[in-house]
Amino acid sequence: MSPELKTSVPTMLPPAGTLPPGPSNDSASSAKRPRAAARLDRMPATWWLASIMGLLFLSWLIESYDIGLTGSVLPSLTQQFALSTAMKSFVAVAANIGIVIGIVPAGRLADRFGRRKVLIVGTAAYAILTFATGFAHGLASLITLRIVDGIAMGAVFPIPYIYASELCPPNRRGRFTGWADSFLSFGYFLSPLLALLLIPNVNDTEGWRIMFMIGGIPILFALLAWRFLPESPRWLESKGHWLESEAALAKMEARAERSLGAPLAPLPPEVEVPAVAPLHPLRAIFKPPLRRRSATLWVTFGGTFFIFYSIQTFMPTVVAKMGYPLTSAFEFTAIIVGVSIPGKMLEAYVIERWGRKPVIIGFTTIAALAAMAFGFVRGAIPIIALGCLMSFFGIGVDPAVKTYTSESYPTEIRAWGVATTEGFGRLISGVAGPSLIPIMLSNFGVGAVYSLVGSVALIAVVIVFIFGRETHGMTLEQSADVNAPLERTRSVLTT
């Protein structure tokens, strides 16, 4: 029998009254499988769950400020260090290079050691490194710090929406992620707003340093997460830590019952179902049946996020290229990025009504067409109007893509699958694409740049339309089922 056939031989899940194989529960002779999925999915959206999601929202808010720093300080750095076009490209993508380097191995670490540990350590590391960047004395040290800082940020990026997918009930996953992602946009909006106050002109040599020092504040979040954030019970169960998963679930259920003032609904009888043999933690996403799913997600992520990077990293430079002063460039950018917040709130409203695929296809198509038109308009009102349309839908779609990605991989390899998708997607959208933008901007103008951005986004639309699966309304275990059919057009749960 071939190796591939062997991996598809069904095995039975351990019944609720038995122990899993391995050392995790060897000393816990009375441990029972906690049934984390069924117990989490029956819990309502309580204030406690909202507070945990709020803590995760905060992690994205503070990290997004750091991501938005590059575009906001780039004009000042260009002036102070006399950056050439090529060097400007390198400075612009330095943090993104680090993110791509850090995000993939961090996914493996999160699957092996837990979501909570990676989030706390990664946040503390990038906070310290961002603060230190404010003291950089030369271009070499600044670029080095940004790359290493990016490695730490990459470790943090996918964790909040992995948490959301594993803790939230099926009819709230997309909505919570949309709300959380709006905090990202608020952080992106905060960077150009502070730049407007702290960097009055390109000759200022202190404002950009203060902005990096402000980026040290997330160290306080690491302390809050260490104190209040629980580990994912789904992850604990998947690793055989049944007693820890049971303890976490019991606390969550007690809080939910206190909030409701009534007992939770009884669990349905457990049904033993066939399950495939354990997935290889590294190779599974590159082999059937997950290979096509992974390739679809990589292209979708890369194409949609290229819109984000074209706005967040280069909008001040692009507006200045159009002939506006630096203060106007920051004002335009703050308005355009700020509009993405209601875009994400709309996404949070419609994603549990329309489904994942329709939102991704519809939002990205509108943004791509707006991007293609953006490069050929002149005048403040058309620039702001098309920029806002591009941001509202092009950045507004991001939480739908993240939800869709986290729902597509089984718990035991979810962080690895999500991190690999983000790594590849950000390599295309945050490194390769932005490396071309200053060169194209210098040689061919704004029209060529945003024609490229729109074209790449439309490729993502076509790919998700043809190959994407609909995961709306499914339990996390159904949406991540490795044997699920390619197309799924109807929900299995009411919302």
* Mean of pLDDT: 84
Oligomerization category of the chains in this entry:
single chain
- Structurally, the number of domains stands at 1
Low-confidence stretches: 1-19, 21-30, 487-495
In DSSP terms (H or I, runs of 4 or more residues), the helix count works out at: 22
Rg measurement, Å: 23 Å
Shape: globular
State the total count of DSSP E strands: 2
Work out the strand percent.
under 5%
CATH architecture: Up-down Bundle
Give the gist of this structure:
With 495 residues, the chain is an all-alpha fold. It is built from 22 helices and 2 strands.
Set out the fold topology:
Blueprint: H1 3-7, E1 11-12, H2 36-41, H3 47-80, H4 85-113, H5 115-133, H6 139-156, H7 159-167, H8 173-198, H9 207-214, H10 219-228, H11 233-238, H12 242-260, E2 274-275, H13 291-312, H14 315-321, H15 326-338, H16 340-354, H17 356-374, H18 380-394, H19 398-406, H20 414-443, H21 446-467, H22 476-479
Antiparallel strand pairs: 1-2
Helix pairs in contact: 3-4, 3-7, 3-8, 3-9, 3-10, 4-5, 4-6, 4-20, 5-6, 5-7, 5-9, 5-10, 7-8, 8-9, 8-15, 8-16, 8-19, 13-18, 13-19, 13-20, 13-21, 14-15, 15-18, 16-17, 16-18, 17-18, 17-19, 17-21, 20-21
Account of the protein in words:
With 495 residues, this protein is an all-alpha fold. It has one domain (38-236, 280-479): Up-down Bundle (Growth Hormone, Chain: A). It is built from 22 helices and two strands. It has a two-stranded antiparallel sheet. Helix 13 runs antiparallel to helix 21 and helix 16 (340-354) runs parallel beside helix 18. It is globular, with a radius of gyration of 23 Å. The two termini are 44 Å apart. Residues 1-19, 21-30 and 487-495 have low confidence and may be disordered.
